[in-house]
Amino acid sequence: MTQEELFKKLIAHCKEYGFIFPSSEIYDGLGAVYDYGQNGVELKNNIKSYWWDSMVKLHENIVGLDAAIFMHPRVWEASGHVGAFNDPLIDNKDSKKRYRADVLIEDWLAKQDEKIEKEVEKARKRFKESFNEEQYLATSPRVLEIREKRDAVHSRFAEALNNNDLVELRQIILDCEIVCPISGTRNWTDVRQFNLMFSTQMGSTADGANTVYLRPETAQGIFVNFLNVQKTGRMKLPFGIAQIGKAFRNEIVARQFIFRMREFEQMEMQFFVQPGTEMEWWKRWKETRMAWHRALGFGDDNYRFHDHDKLAHYANAATDIEFNFPFGFKEVEGIHSRTDFDLGRHQEFSGKKIQYFDAERGESYVPYVVETSIGVDRMFLQIMSAAYTEEKLENGEERVVLRIPAQLAPTKVAIMPLVKKDGLPEVARQIIDDLKFDYNVAYDEKDSIGKRYRRQDAVGTPFCVTVDHQTLEDGTVTVRHRDSMQQERVKVEALRSMVDEAVSFRNLFKKMQA
Ligand code: ATP
Asked: Which among 368, 392, 416 is the end of a domain?
């Protein structure tokens, strides 16, 4: 199965099993907007709890916030979003399709890296044991040629982005002979800038309506509340403010399912530090955030850091954590050192002093900020792509199983009476009544046990518990484990601690801190 086929299957699976539906589907959907179904919302809530607890519970000096989506329009002037929150666009005149010029070039660069990898693989096969990768990379004329061309384009690209040189971006596309994937031609328009913010009107026109924006990031709600939280919480530097909330961007090229949406959710933490210490904190947060991802056990090789070619107008250091999606390594999270840009600009635009009095240093200053910013939806896609597995069983049957970490699984336990009689459903209900105060528990009495297992596998339920006639005699049940399919006999009273051990975030947090 190719990665593309796998991704298509994953999207179909998300719909079939109530994880994700296209928005307003009965009206044929709305571009790049999605709804989360009965299982999706549970997984999403669990992702948010994992993040929230790792920030607010694990750190004494991080507190939460829930700011409104609408903000004073001046906020977005101060933040630079009105002037500079743009994507460079290019259209293919034949297919009439629109692309982000930067993404076309990034994809071309990634292709060159793939070409080099292929050369290495070929040589590895040819030279077998005697193959020395380092030496090959340093001497193969073919590799050197590809790399030289790639590096030259890369530096032109970085410079064009930093200078906002749209003509040069187009020239790179032409020079690299990048074609439109639909029409296959190189008939490109000029590159233009496009602002990504959605706007609407607040108040009636007669009152003199104001243009307000749907926030394109949650961070600004934190910045404008910096003093409120610092003063009322008596917070001392360094400290952080964490927030989860919706953000909106009028993405031009919405692709790859929930990877790039027009309405999405962010989990952002702004960490305020003494000026001069920001690089140290930036490095620490990079490690902490990587550990958070890796604790989920999807394989360390599936993550990497990617430093930005173009630093945003506010940043002095920025990196992304990328995950190996079925469509390649792509950004899931950004870790940015935002300097004193945001607080400084709000101070300037609002005319209010936004400073911290440092008692130890005996002076006031505008703190520096290190931000960690992750999309809930991209995290969701990361989990689904890593978890979706098709397996051939020993008896020749196939099963689709979502190997979602138990801590994040939408349903933790499914309770199944073996038959619908002899008092077994009643016992099953009693077990549910006990567990439901703490966990999401499902009840299923339809079809054969095998079919019921498949249904739970497909939504990632880690435990299936079968109540049978023996339960009536000795108070034990059969627990069947999702990943190994192993079964064991367990006392009903032991269920709670078994489930708790598997689904509590405790073990993830311990791994993170190890
Ligand atoms: P990209 O380069 O992919 O457009 P970005 O660098 O603009 O992303 P940030 O502004 O750093 O993204 O936003 C932080 C995080 O928010 C991203 O790492 C991503 O997880 C999430 N995010 C951003 N835009 C979207 C979107 N359109 N749909 C879903 N998630 C998004």
From this structure: 392
Give the predicted TM-score (pTM) of the model. Answer: 0.86
Identify the domain containing residue 429 by its residue range. Answer: 400-513
**Rounded distance, CA 42 to CA 18, Å?**
11
- Taking residues 16-20, what's their average pLDDT? 98
Domain end position, chosen among 195, 226, 260: 195
Would 207 be classed as within a structural domain?
no
Q: How far is the CA of 281 from the centre of ligand 1 (A)?
A: 22
For residue 478, report the phi and psi dihedrals to the nearest 5 degrees.
Answer: -95, 125
The CA 358 to ligand 1 mean position distance, Å, reads: 34
Residue whose token pair is 């009636």: 204
Pick from 322, 331, 342 the residue to mutate for probing ligand 1's pocket: most ligand atoms within 8 Å of its CB: 331
Under 8 Å between Cβ of 475 and 491: yes
Instruction: Please tell me whether residue 130 adopts helix, strand or coil conformation.
Output: helix
If asked whether residues 7 and 104 sit together in one domain, one would say no
**Which tokens belong to 171?**
């020239």
Whether 364 and 434 map to the same domain: the answer is no
CA distance 253 to 158: 21
Regarding whether 429 and 331 lie in a shared domain, the answer is no
| Top mutation candidate among 373, 376, 381, 383 for ligand 1, by most atoms within 8 Å of CB | 373
What is the whole-number distance in angstroms between the Cα of residue 265 and the centre of ligand 1?
Answer: 10
Residue 359 located in a structural domain: yes
Q: What is the pLDDT of residues 57-66, one digit of tens each?
A: 999 999 999 9
Q: Tell me which residue has its CA closest to atom 18 in ligand 1.
A: 333
pLDDT in tens, 378-437: 999 999 999 999 999 888 889 999 999 999 999 999 999 999 999 999 999 999 999 999
Pocket lining: 505 vs ligand 1, CB cutoff 6 Å: no
Whether 164 and 187 share a structural domain: yes
